[in-house]
Amino acid sequence: MECSYFGKCGSCTLYALDYQAQVAHKKTAIKTLFEPLHVKEFTFFESACEHYRGRAEFRIWKEGEKIHYAMGAMDKKRAVCIDACPKVEERIDTLMPKLLKAIEGVDVLRERIFAIEFLSSSEHLLVTLIYHKPLDKAWEKEAKKLEEVFNIFVIGRSRGIKKVLSQDFIEERFALEAKSYRYHIIEGGFSQPNRTMNQTMIGWVLSHLESCEDLLELYCGYGNFTLPMAGKFNKVLATEISKTSIASALKNCELNDVSNITFLRLSAEELTSALNKERTFNRLAGMNLDDYAFSHVFVDPPRSGMDEKSLAFISRFENIIYISCNPQTLKRDLEVLCQNYTIEHFALFDQFPNTEHLESGVILKRH
């Protein structure tokens, strides 16, 4: 990937290395990090080097009547104005200068704007304009023109305000193992930025599922992994703390005609207490958790990894599938799990070329 802002913009820290050198660098770092756990082999999935990111946010920098996209500088002390970003998907990359010019030319769109977010899918492109001011009818009228001119969906946000002109979601479609999937993804909720690598991750998990009975999933989000995995199991119990994500997950079950998943709005800690029969929850009224015969547990925690109690809880299951966005906390958690489990498969997913970031997948089986 070539970018005129390498060395200035702080987003791409490995810009001095060509992509294969980056891959070698990341492999070496992971081998060194996990050497105490005797991890000698792993599968490394490479990404496209450019136009891979379907979700992106840019600050807006103002110079009089002119506005620019901006990113944090390499020294983390200032902003760098940019005109383009080759990391983002081509559809976003093409739109960025045209959209900025259109906003710049209309006072009500330009005034007090401070950020723009892009969310792309196979079907839609949604743009969120974020302001330090109330959004009135005049703003709505001009923002609606942006939707029509650029064939996009526009949302306006300011403190305590969310203006949805047409819709506040995108729909993603893809096929895995000869089956098609549809996803309803709400603006503001979490989604994997690298859509192609996301499909690779799901496919990797599916390829290693064996002896499946029932599945327990923690941190399920909008059902990104849940729906494809459901076809491998008798029943699935999936939990998530976000109301928005649970609503999307239920919608996605409907879109995909999946009926063997029960979604619960519980944190990992709350579910642990419920399954340990330490606490009761109104949200579990009418459910008998003893009806499940969990052969696998799937976890995809935040960067902080798993808390001590939840880590102890998942150690009761025969098979653990652990997706991690932070190798450091993954190593910490594996140091505990590997006392009773063997790492059967280990994979690295290069979600963000030109950065140190790596997504990991580990499948463990009890000794």
In short:
It holds the Pfam family tRNA_U5-meth_tr. Helices cover 29% and strands 29% of the residues.
Total DSSP E strands: 17
Summarize model confidence as the mean pLDDT. 94
Order of helices and strands: HEEEEHHEEHEEEEHEHEHEHEHEHEE
CATH superfamily of the largest domain: Vaccinia Virus protein VP39
- Which class of secondary structure composition applies to the elements? alpha/beta
The oligomerization state is single chain
Enzyme class: transferase
Family: Belongs to the class I-like SAM-binding methyltransferase superfamily. RNA M5U methyltransferase family.
GO molecular function, one term: tRNA (uracil(54)-C5)-methyltransferase activity, S-adenosyl methionine-dependent
GO cellular component, one term: cytosol
Please characterize this protein's 3D structure:
The structure is a single chain. With 367 residues, the chain is α/β, with parallel strands linked by helices. It has two domains: 55-169, OB fold (Dihydrolipoamide Acetyltransferase, E2P), CATH 2.40.50; 194-366, Rossmann fold. The chain has ten helices and 17 strands. It has helices at residues 19-34, 90-104, 107-110, 137-150, 195-207, 226-230, 243-256, 268-275, 308-314, 327-337; strands spanning 43-45, 55-63, 66-72, 79-82, 113-120, 125-131, 153-158, 161-164, 169-176, 179-186, 214-218, 235-239, 261-264, 294-299, 319-324, 341-349, 359-366. The strands form three sheets. It has an eight-stranded mixed sheet with strand order 1-16-17-15-14-11-12-13, with helices on both faces. The chain has a seven-stranded mixed sheet with strand order 4-3-2-5-6-7-8, with helices on one face. β7 and β8 form a beta hairpin. The protein is globular. The model has no long low-confidence stretch (mean pLDDT 94).
